């Protein structure tokens, strides 16, 4: 049998962004060989990958040909050609997450139907093929229109406040989700390996930038009751098991003002809501992803210290080669861990990096996080 | 001014071994550009370096030409051509550690004389140019013969038990050091940046493999009195300041059975006695090395948890392509962090990787470390 700790065993990674980059940084600890496919020559992974192939991961032939020489294929971005992955799987190549699970997750309509089917609580929704159908079906406002496919990081999501807004809605088949009065957003990352071992990380709490609709702060642990903590963990485990998925799955929740826990979205890969685990937990989400797809024992997910993660988003109104202001000042603060993703150019709200602050108490970490946020600015 | 977070700013690293590899893994967090020079095409750094140049770091022209295009030059191995580095420094290129400090450290005779000059306690010694002079000067036994230059990891060191042993001593100028009855070996890693900021890590305790004369276990924190802790930290700080050195310095100590703290050796780079800091401290030694040579604020060095580091040495009697036994079993244990260095071939006692065990108590970490040591075997 080939040793996974040698270049004889080839892992193929679709996507070469920051999630892939952090996965590669960890993968060197296990001496893994990882080839990366990404359309952008200067993608965050291009310097670290053992092999970096420029190509479109949405194209059937490109993905199929890339995958043929690999032992295991995985992703760091879910909007890839899952038909090619299904055919590679049929040829006996291991693909984790499996194409069947991926196809459900890639389509926000199928995702919602899946939650309903397995009895997982989620906010009320309706599915439409276009704006005409939206106008017919909409009875309650406000709601969020989410394009069924290709949305990410706040793109492909629009708030519809009234009947009049529908004419400005996005074109394309959509899932429309009623806006639930919300107390908090939460996330649980769970992993499952081929042997069926399942382990979840503790619940974390997310605070969004309202303008960019992107995570701005993450708090670990979440400030929630034991009962909600337990419910969220159990729902995450239930979803990965019902999906019969191998790999890492991020499960995002809404906690409504009435105390109801609703599943929002899932992502079958390392996720922004797990970045704090690099310094704040016994095992990082990147380590856990690697362990899950290689059928290694899953790592302990307990937090080692309270932590706060701050996303470094490109300053609004700046576009061009990135200039990092205030990084040195932030580095002087205790427990501050800077992660820059190596993207050459910035634009408004682009994810350019993140910072994790580890401290003896969450309050202390929050105080430092606020200072970090005020200190680091990414301009052009 | 060039931004250090871009490929415009080029760092040159002499040596492409595991210390460089772990430095590179961290350097991606700051988006640094690092070119590596190493004679071995398949060195542990070759896949991760932004640029990997195959060449002899002991050769004047090779080092000089490699260095000319760089903004900062550093090392992960001290036996490099320091004359070339001195000439690069004279041209205005930053070289950290500075060639002047490097020349003292490269020669175990000059090192000892330096300790004596600045009043740092060290074990009694005498310097000889050859075996004839050794026979003349040796009055007390046993002592350790250490070749003045080119020794590392137990090579270039020999125990001389009696007058009769001298005929079997190594050829070459040597520093001969009286064997002091020893209680423990300790280490402190200290860093200094160009602005003069100095920070040291807490003291750690080392346990050697007697046969290979290499570190087998490391314990953090060391089990020593507060007074010894303070003395060791102060001596480490004194040495880096007196050397006027910028960079990271590992200071190894003997604690004699009579309770005397003696400086053994120093190394101006990340060191085996700091590996636990990756998971066990707020800032890792690799992070601190990077911070020091780029004149960034030094990071907090406190331990986050007790930890034990186990070196993974090639099993005695095996030589050839490495086979890793027991890695999966070890990965199932809590707090176990595996680091494989990506060396294609193993041989007796070769450093092939290390494992850091982080736990709530040192005792718990020690228990797991023992199991890890029994579980992982690197054979061929």
UniProtKB/TrEMBL annotation, chains A, B:
Homodimer. It is an enzyme of class 6 (ligase). This is N5-carboxyaminoimidazole ribonucleotide synthase. Belongs to the PurK/PurT family. Keywords: ATP-binding, Ligase, Nucleotide-binding, Purine biosynthesis. HAMAP family: PurK. Catalyzes the ATP-dependent conversion of 5-aminoimidazole ribonucleotide (AIR) and HCO(3)- to N5-carboxyaminoimidazole ribonucleotide (N5-CAIR). It comes from the Bacteria. It holds the Pfam family RS_preATP-grasp-like. GO terms for biological process: 'de novo' IMP biosynthetic process. One of its GO terms (cellular component) is cytosol. The lineage of its organism: Bacteria, Pseudomonadati, Bacteroidota, Flavobacteriia, Flavobacteriales. One of its GO terms (molecular function) is phosphoribosylaminoimidazole carboxylase activity. The keyword ATP-binding applies. Its EC number is 6.3.4.18.
